[in-house]
Amino acid sequence: MIGIGEGAQSFVNAQVNSLGPNVLFIIPGSPEAQSRPVYPPQTLVLADAEAIAEQVPVVEEVAPSLNGSELMSYRGKNASASLIGATPEYLSVRSFDVARGRFMSDLDLKRNEQIVVLGSELAEQLFGNEDPLGKQVRLKDISLQVVGVMQPKGSTFGTNQDMNAFIPITTMANRIVGETSPYGTQVTFISVSIKNPDSMKAAQFQIENLLRLRHKITDEDDFTVRNQKDLMNTLGQITGALTLVLAATAAISLFVGGIGIMNIMLVSVTERTQEIGLRKAIGASQQDILAQFIIEAVILSAAGGLLGTAIGVGGVFLVAAVTPLSAGISPVTIAVTVSVSGGIGLFFGVIPAKRAAQLDPIVALRSA
């Protein structure tokens, strides 16, 4: 149970880290609007991202993006692609890598070039074993030339990053989405990488003040800045609570197992009355009998703990094989679980041991 909880924590940490190191995310709409079922208004524009890059000194790179979803086709083959109108900085800010070809450049943005960089799985669905570089794919009523294919990225929080199609943000805004903001090219959100992890709070404060000035905000913010570390801490608390719930479930099983050990030892005392009486008749003290049965209970439960640990570790690796969770279990956890198993035997073995130690040797031999 603890191994599954630790695997969930490792999985969540990996998902957050895959978003990019030291990244702030700026999302349209106030924090209150994010919790509402109505989609928040699109209040961020490309000029906001450019202002952040120019005026916030602790910022390393800024990557605005305009997202959408459309059907992409090539010679009768269709695939539902997650469109990302991006800039060249998206590659480094979000920790993506190009496997073949190239990514978009600043010149592509200036010229509104009709190019696309495909995710690895999207390229495979459309082209199979054919080399996609230089080919033309159809999107709505326009053709886009494939200039690159990305390295496999996997899924992040349920979104398959390998089904992405990266298009210059200007082309995305002008040819696919259309201008929907009177203040310029709208963006879905802005990713900001910070030079120093210690400057995350300062960067967040400066960005919030800058956007308030640009948007002339006097009351409620029309944007939300989310810190990657805060997100990791929040998700860590959730997975930590999950681990505690799983540990509590395991504790119930341990309690039931302890009662089973106590019952077995009580039956053992009854069946071994003659042995106890004989030992006490030849000089064994109550402490000797007490120690004998306590040691037996501890050995019994510790052996069960070792066997259960072996099965549990195998179960953790089995869960990791069939789910996205990683196989996370530490040697300390194994040592603690075996120790707890032995402690359960010690605790529940005391009552049968006391009962055996208090037997009268004459009565024990006579009853046998």
Secondary structure layout:
Blueprint: H1 2-17, E1 23-28, H2 31-34, H3 46-55, E2 59-74, E3 77-86, H4 90-93, E4 98-101, H5 106-110, E5 115-118, H6 120-127, E6 136-139, E7 142-150, E8 155-156, E9 159-160, E10 164-168, H7 169-177, E11 189-194, H8 200-214, E12 223-227, H9 228-271, H10 273-281, H11 286-322, H12 331-357, H13 361-367
Parallel strand pairs: 3-10, 5-7
Antiparallel strand pairs: 1-11, 1-12, 2-3, 2-6, 2-11, 4-7, 5-10, 6-7, 8-9
Helix pairs in contact: 1-9, 3-8, 9-11, 9-12, 10-13, 11-12
Descriptive account of the structure:
By secondary structure, this protein is of the alpha+beta class. The chain folds into 2 domains: 42-221, no CATH class; 252-367, no CATH class. It is 53% helix and 20% strand. It is built from 13 helices and 12 strands. It has helices at residues 2-17, 31-34, 46-55, 90-93, 106-110, 120-127, 169-177, 200-214, 228-271, 273-281, 286-322, 331-357, 361-367, and strands at 23-28, 59-74, 77-86, 98-101, 115-118, 136-139, 142-150, 155-156, 159-160, 164-168, 189-194, 223-227. Strands 2-3-10-5-7-6 form a 6-stranded mixed barrel. Strands 8-9 form a two-stranded antiparallel ribbon. Helix 10 crosses helix 13 (361-367) and helix 11 (286-322) packs antiparallel against helix 12. The protein is elongated, with a radius of gyration of 32 Å.
Write a concise synopsis of the structure shown:
With 368 residues, the chain is α+β, with helices and mostly antiparallel strands.
Give me the Rg, rounded. Answer: 32 Å
Strand segment count:
12
Percent of residues in helices: 40-55%
Assign an overall shape. Answer: elongated
- The largest sheet has its strands arranged as 2-3-10-5-7-6
Report the major sheet: 6 strands, mixed, barrel
The number of distinct helices, counting runs of at least 4 residues, comes to 13
What string gives the helices and strands in order?
A: HEHHEEHEHEHEEEEEHEHEHHHHH
What percentage of amino acids are in beta strands?
Answer: 15-25%
Number of domains: 2
Family: Belongs to the ABC-4 integral membrane protein family.
GO molecular function: transmembrane transporter activity
Domain ABC3 transporter permease C-terminal: 250-361
Domain MacB-like periplasmic core: 1-210
